[in-house]
Amino acid sequence: MAVEAATLMRNKAACLFDAGAPCGAEANMAKYLASEAAWDAAEACMATFGGYGFATEYHVERKWREARLFRTAPVSNNLVLAYVGQHVLGMLRSY
Ligand SMILES: Cc1cc2nc3c(=O)[nH]c(=O)nc-3n(C[C@H](O)[C@H](O)[C@H](O)COP(=O)(O)OP(=O)(O)OC[C@H]3O[C@@H](n4cnc5c(N)ncnc54)[C@H](O)[C@@H]3O)c2cc1C
């Protein structure tokens, strides 16, 4: 469900972009949803492998680490939340 939601939001952002319409909010939301879905999947994978998840030959710890990266880069999910708060919800700038 999370991957499907991320895909739908990504497609919406791409459609808006192609139409020359503003798409900052949708692009930020797609990045957030996709990176959180990837992290949840990585966590589930690590939990499934248990101790073997840390054994380098299984490559789970590498994928787990790389999945975590996308919550920070190319833009931090905290700043996506700040963007949505300010530009979508009309809240005061938080930083
Ligand atoms: C592999 C990689 C690729 C990258 N690619 C790009 C790129 O293409 N373009 C680009 O512009 N940048 C890129 N970055 C930089 C990335 O945007 C920053 O690393 C990220 O925004 C975190 O900033 P920081 O590293 O300065 O850490 P800090 O700003 O010190 O953040 C540390 C922690 O505090 C949180 N935080 C910081 N400010 C706030 C706030 N106002 N509200 C709530 N929480 C906050 C952050 O989310 C993080 O958890 C990349 C980074 C990496 C590691």
Key terms:
mainly alpha, 95 residues, elongated, binds flavin-adenine dinucleotide
Topology record:
Elements: H1 2-18, H2 24-49, H3 60-69, H4 77-88
Helix pairs in contact: 1-2, 2-3, 2-4
This protein binds flavin-adenine dinucleotide (FAD).
Strand content: under 5%
Q: What is the N-to-C order of secondary-structure elements (H for helix, E for strand)? A: HHHH
Number of strands: 0
Look at the helices and sheets and give the structural class: mainly alpha
**Biggest sheet statistics:** none
Fraction of helical residues: 55-70%
What does this structure look like?
The protein has 95 residues and is mainly α. It is built from four helices and no strands. The chain is elongated. It starts with a helix and ends in a 7-residue tail after the last helix. Flavin-adenine dinucleotide binds next to helix 4.
Short recap of the structure:
With 95 residues, this protein is mainly alpha-helical. 68% of the residues lie in helices and 0% in strands. It contains four helices and no strands.
